[in-house]
């Protein structure tokens, strides 16, 4: 039994070998085109023959037959492929051997990776996510970025890649002139910024309003606007008293962001902050480099690059502004410096950005310019992990009932409260050791799962009732399946412990039976359990965590079929069948927990 239980990958390798030995053809594993079969007579199918036959000028069924015969060469009794039959124009229907399936499930039970192989060529990724703006509340777009980015980081790391997470805080630029000037006006510096209980110290709750106040003054009071502009110059020239105030603003905001991260279980720390200000010292160099490489031109007094292939409505080339006509640097320049830094200094193979779809043109242009500049090499890639908007149940932009913008920390608090109410409502929390922990796991899990389970580029509707439902593709449904499995394990362990003075066995002992697949629901569940590696691979291929959600939902659903039709602990179930079913349940619990964990969602022990 190989250490990987990645069935479709093992089949692809077998098909690859078969092409070589039967037809002397070299094909890739992708060419093998292994798909899960939707027909009752097959588990998987191989769709390769049609395309390959065309290339080598042979009838597809003949090619398929030669491959199928080779696949079926007699081997070990517990071989992977039990049947391979040619069907239709040249498909091969494949049935997996029951013994092989059984021992693969046994392996899932003892392997902390649940049979998921590690990446054969690990890469180094730079992943930009969360990236809120200082002196403003995080909004729902930042929530989505945080949730999606964090899941992508977990999935890639689990697969064996290195992920350098960086939080591109909006902590620099002209608004800081007015913000700092307003800080001075309200005598912020005089208050003890260390003392969070001191009511004189503004907290971020004030700062959203604070930002508005500064804005109003800036727009209506020319004297203030002048001071603000001068303050920008001081900030950029490194004036220490100005920097001190700027740092206070950043620290105040960071405190707030960290509160959200900790409640959400997002792994970003202070060490991951690479805000816009971080790149400020190199912006002039970046501009010079682009000029030296002949990539820039002056347009309306601004230094611009015009990456090829990007045109506006009238067919006019679109610029990325490197240096504004007033000599300042903006968002695009900073992102060019960011790409250069993570590619050249940090030697990343892939750049990833979890940012909303409205910025997709910006990123495509930044990527193209980075290619032209020679920073993004042939072997490297840059990907915008774009996502749609979060909408209210009415299908409009997400707002509070009163129409205001939502404070994330309140939203998360509400999720936890609703989860608590819901669990009590269904009287499911009776066994709860720590209902606060469970309420948090279920509430935060609901928010994350609802976000991750829809294809990320679609807008998604935020709906409390749906996300907290125990039915359907929700966190609670999967968490509930896990809790039920845990409870079966506990009961089995308890029952085993009561036998003729035997010492109480552990859950693992009680479940460590040989897996024998007798009934159809057992077999179907076993096949599902073994699809975890493929689900993870698919999610990585397109950076789409919803593929893992779909897998979890399908697996939990398969489990409930099995649970209904195959009694586990009933007295009439023979001991060996019972042990086998316990092992199946145990393996299911393990893949579900692992999958939820990759999404950053915890599984309560009880529900
Ligand atoms: N701070 C930006 C915003 O709130 C997002 C930054 C995304 N990252 C980047 N490298 N541009 O829209």
Automatic annotation (TrEMBL):
Example GO biological process term? arginyl-tRNA aminoacylation
Q: Which CDD domains match?
A: Anticodon_Ia_Arg, ArgRS_core
Task: Quote the EC number.
Answer: 6.1.1.19
Q: Where is this motif: 'HIGH' region?
A: 132-142
Protein location: Cytoplasm
Key word ATP-binding present: yes
Gene Ontology molecular function, alphabetical:
arginine-tRNA ligase activity; ATP binding
This entry carries the following GO cellular component terms, namely: cytoplasm
Which EC class, in a word?
ligase
Question: What reaction does this enzyme carry out catalytically?
Answer: tRNA(Arg) + L-arginine + ATP = L-arginyl-tRNA(Arg) + AMP + diphosphate
Which keywords are on file for this protein?
Aminoacyl-tRNA synthetase, ATP-binding, Cytoplasm, Ligase, Nucleotide-binding, Protein biosynthesis
Q: Which PANTHER family match?
A: ARGININE--TRNA LIGASE, CYTOPLASMIC, ARGINYL-TRNA SYNTHETASE
Family statement drawn from the similarity comment of this UniProt entry: Belongs to the class-I aminoacyl-tRNA synthetase family.
* Self-association state and partner proteins as the record states: Monomer.
What is the name of the protein in this document? Arginine--tRNA ligase
Organism whose genome encodes this protein: Spelaeicoccus albus
């Amino acid at each position: 039994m190989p250490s990987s239980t990645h069935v479709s990958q093992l089949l692809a390798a077998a098909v690859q070998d078969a092409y070589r030995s039967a037809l002397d053809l070299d094909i890739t594993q992708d060419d093998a085109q292994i798909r899960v079969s939707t027909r009752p007579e097959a588990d998987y199918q191989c769709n390769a023959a049609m395309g390959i036959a065309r290339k080598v000028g042979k009838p597809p069924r003949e090619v398929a037959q030669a491959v199928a015969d080779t696949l079926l060469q007699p081997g070990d009794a517990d071989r992977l492929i039990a049947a391979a039959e040619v069907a239709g124009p040249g498909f091969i229907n494949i049935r997996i051997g029951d013994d092989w399936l059984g021992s693969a499930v046994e392996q899932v039970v003892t392997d902390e990776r649940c049979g998921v192989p590690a990446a054969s060529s690990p890469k180094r990724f730079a992943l930009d996510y969360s990236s809120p703006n200082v002196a403003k509340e995080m909004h729902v777009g930042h929530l989505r970025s945080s949730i999606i980015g964090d899941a992508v980081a977990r999935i890639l790391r689990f697969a064996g890649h290195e992920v350098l997470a960086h939080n591109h805080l909006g902590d620099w630029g002209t608004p800081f002139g007015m913000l700092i000037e307003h800080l001075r006006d309200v005598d912020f510096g005089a208050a003890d910024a260390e003392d969070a209980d001191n009511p004189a110290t503004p907290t971020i709750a004030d700062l959203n309003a604070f930002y508005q106040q500064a804005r109003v003054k800036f727009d209506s009071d020319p004297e203030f606007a002048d001071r603000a502009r001068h303050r920008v110059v001081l900030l950029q020239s490194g004036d220490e008293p100005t920097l001190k105030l700027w740092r206070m603003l950043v620290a105040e905001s960071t405190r707030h962001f960290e509160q959200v991260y900790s409640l959400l279980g997002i792994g970003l720390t202070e060490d991951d902050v690479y805000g816009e200000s971080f790149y400020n010292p190199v912006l002039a160099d970046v501009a010079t480099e682009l000029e030296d490489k002949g990539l820039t031109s002056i347009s309306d007094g601004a230094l611009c690059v015009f990456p090829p292939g990007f045109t506006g409505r009238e067919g006019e080339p679109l610029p990325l502004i490197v240096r504004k006509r007033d000599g300042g640097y903006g968002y695009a320049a900073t992102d060019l410096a960011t790409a250069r830094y993570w590619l050249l200094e940090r030697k990343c193979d892939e750049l990833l950005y979890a940012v909303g779809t409205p910025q997709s043109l910006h990123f495509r242009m930044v990527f193209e310019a980075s290619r032209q500049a020679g920073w993004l090499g042939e072997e490297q890639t840059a990907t915008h992990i774009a996502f749609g908007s979060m909408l209210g149940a009415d299908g409009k932009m997400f707002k509070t009932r009163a129409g205001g913008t939502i404070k994330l920390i309140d939203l998360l608090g509400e999720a936890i409260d609703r989860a608590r109410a819901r669990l009590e409502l269904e009287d499911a929390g009776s066994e709860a050791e720590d209902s606060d922990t469970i309420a948090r796991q279920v509430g935060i899990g609901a928010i994350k799962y609802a976000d991750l389970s829809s294809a990320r580029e679609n807008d998604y509707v935020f709906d409390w009732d749906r996300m907290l439902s125990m039915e359907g593709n929700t966190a609670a449904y999967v968490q509930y399946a896990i809790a039920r499995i845990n409870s079966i394990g506990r009961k089995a362990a308890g029952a085993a412990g009561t036998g003729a003075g035997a010492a109480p066995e552990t859950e693992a002992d009680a479940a460590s039976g040989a897996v024998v697949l007798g009934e159809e629901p057992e077999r179907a569940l076993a096949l599902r359990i073994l699809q975890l590696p493929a689900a993870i691979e698919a999610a990585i291929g397109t950076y789409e965590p919803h593929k893992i959600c779909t897998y979890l939902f399908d697996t939990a659903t398969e489990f409930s079929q099995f649970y209904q039709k195959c009694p586990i602990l009933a007295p009439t179930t023979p001991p060996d069948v019972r042990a086998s079913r316990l092992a199946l349940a145990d393996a299911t619990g393990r893949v579900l927990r692992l999958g939820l964990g990759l999404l950053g969602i915890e599984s309560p022990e009880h529900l």
